[in-house]
Design a protein that fits this description.
Elements (H helix, E strand, L loop, with lengths): L2 E6 L9 H9 L2 E8 L1 H4 L6 H19 L6 E4 L2 H12 L4 E4 L4 H11 L4 E4 L21 H10 L39 H15 L3 H4 L12 H5 L5 H13 L8 H22 L21 H9 L5 H13 L4 H14 L4 H11 L5 H12 L14 H8 L4 H6 L19 H6 L15 H13 L2
Helix pairs in contact: 6-11, 10-11, 11-16, 13-14, 14-16, 15-16
């Protein structure tokens, strides 16, 4: 064909882009198109920092395209209407895009495909939903057997990772709208080049110790690639290939545990994507039917304290303040703050899920929903309801010297290590010496964890 549209959604990259490759294989000219969809732009789950990261990624991609004699076309409006207009303007015969699997994305794509020549490829996940099933053809709802089947399927190799095209032609004269301007997080520069830099840095240096260090919250020991995977600035396929290469290259690490553990995290991402594909109602209700009638306390003042990082539990507050400041939170901290909200405060997991989506750069409908329902014990293969994280013990175990807390809760900077995760037990004269009087400079705990734990157990046992 003469012209095709490449409709970008969650694939803001040129390397290993299956939709772009499919378009270039059949068309003489390919127009890269991104649509500012009002339905997503106005969503109550949207976050300004994530929008800024997305927009920055689009600008970086446009710069890369211009070095290849191409450019990004931006339009605003309903996808079906705008794409129909672009087909008329360009004479394009097909629209190529990577399939997305959220409930909204599937409904949107079905509506577009009903009237327009939409061709979907894989790419958001390594194995497309519907391809990892039990022998009886039903979907997995437990992670371990899912991961075994996922890993037993043909895994991609370096030969499968598609190179970025050197250059390609775009139809002339297509009008593009300007991208909005939003202030971005300096902690995560957007774009494919930064994603590749981080991938190389992680796999060449920190991946060897990942299994042992990934839960140490103050350490720079994780990949911090989740925002880049979220928007496809890095393909999931390339991440798996690199993890497998490190795992088999014994010369780089003394053990394969780090690469295995990181690959396991990628498979968890796939598990949640597959779950939401098969069970879209999980976005609105608890996956486990018995917990749909659970009576949440939903105290607005306690929720506000949790949002602001003012619960009086240092590790909880550090995580929430890291999120507000950077648009990202350490994964161990995510589990701690989610357990605290749903178990200690008995606040509906959907409140926390929405707050995370409004602030996370890597806010993904499937992974975020899966993580929150895991912590609340309402999801598929969740933590048992009686496993309730103790925020003091979690802090002492995974932030033993208080470095993470001191970074994000500066009021506690001078509190001795012995008291850093339980500052309310610090003697009054020591509080004054540390410049942190509890109830004045830093709040007292908004709940007693021991009592809150018993309340949560009694509530969950009823279901």
């Amino acid at each position: 064909m003469r012209v095709a549209l490449w409709w970008l959604r969650r694939d803001l990259r040129l390397r290993d882009n299956q939709a772009l490759s499919a378009a270039l294989a059949v068309a003489e000219q390919v127009a890269p198109v991104f649509l500012l969809d009002p339905a997503l732009w106005r969503s109550p789950y949207v976050g300004e920092l994530r929008l800024a990261f997305l927009l920055g990624g689009l600008r970086a991609l446009d710069a890369d395209l211009r070095t290849r004699s191409s450019r990004l076309i931006v339009r605003r409006g309903d996808p079906a209407e705008v794409l129909a207009q672009l087909l008329m303007e360009t004479g394009a015969e097909a629209i190529f895009a990577e399939a997305d699997h959220s409930p909204y994305a599937r409904a949107r794509d079905a509506r577009v495909a009903a009237t327009l020549p939409l061709r979907l490829t894989t790419g958001v996940t390594v194995h497309a939903p519907g391809t990892v099933l039990k022998r009886d053809g039903t979907p997995y709802t437990v992670y371990t057997p899912f991961s075994r089947t996922w890993l037993a399927l043909s895994l991609p190799s370096a030969r499968d990772v598609l190179p970025a095209p050197e250059r390609f032609a775009i139809p002339p004269g297509i009008v593009s709208e300007p991208l909005p301007e939003l202030p971005s997080s300096p902690h995560f520069p957007p774009g494919e080049a930064e994603a590749q830099r981080r991938l190389a840095n992680f796999t060449q240096a920190r991946i060897c110790d990942y299994a042992e260090m990934r839960n140490v919250m103050a350490a720079d020991s994780t990949s911090q690639l989740s925002p880049y995977l979220r928007f496809g600035m890095l393909s999931a396929r390339q991440a798996v290939v690199v993890a497998h290469e490190v795992r088999t290259a014994a010369r780089r690490c003394n053990t394969a545990r780090g690469a295995d553990t990181w690959l396991n995290e990628i498979v968890w991402r796939e598990f949640y994507a597959h779950l939401l594909y098969h069970f879209p109602n999980a976005r609105r209700e608890s996956f486990r039917p018995q917990f749909r009638a659970l009576v949440w306390r939903n105290a607005p003042d306690e929720f506000a304290a949790w949002q602001a990082g003012r619960t009086g539990y240092p590790v909880v507050d550090a995580g929430m303040r890291q999120l507000a400041a950077t648009g990202w939170m350490h994964n161990r901290a995510r589990m701690i703050v989610a357990s605290f909200l749903t178990k200690d405060l008995l606040i509906d997991w959907r409140w926390g899920e929405r707050h995370f989506m409004q602030h996370l750069l890597d806010g993904d409908p499937a992974a975020n929903n899966g993580g929150w329902q895991w912590a609340a014990s309402t999801g598929a293969d969740p933590v048992p309801y009686f496993r309730i994280f103790n925020p003091v013990l979690q802090g002492e175990k995974f932030d033993p010297d208080g470095a993470y807390v001191r970074r994000w809760v500066p009021e506690l900077a001078r509190v001795p290590d012995k008291y850093i995760h339980r500052p309310w037990t610090l003697p009054e004269e020591m509080q004054r010496a540390a410049g942190c009087v509890i109830g004045v400079d830093y709040p007292a705990p908004i709940v007693d964890h021991v009592q809150a734990r018993e309340r949560a157990l009694a509530t969950y046992k009823g279901f």
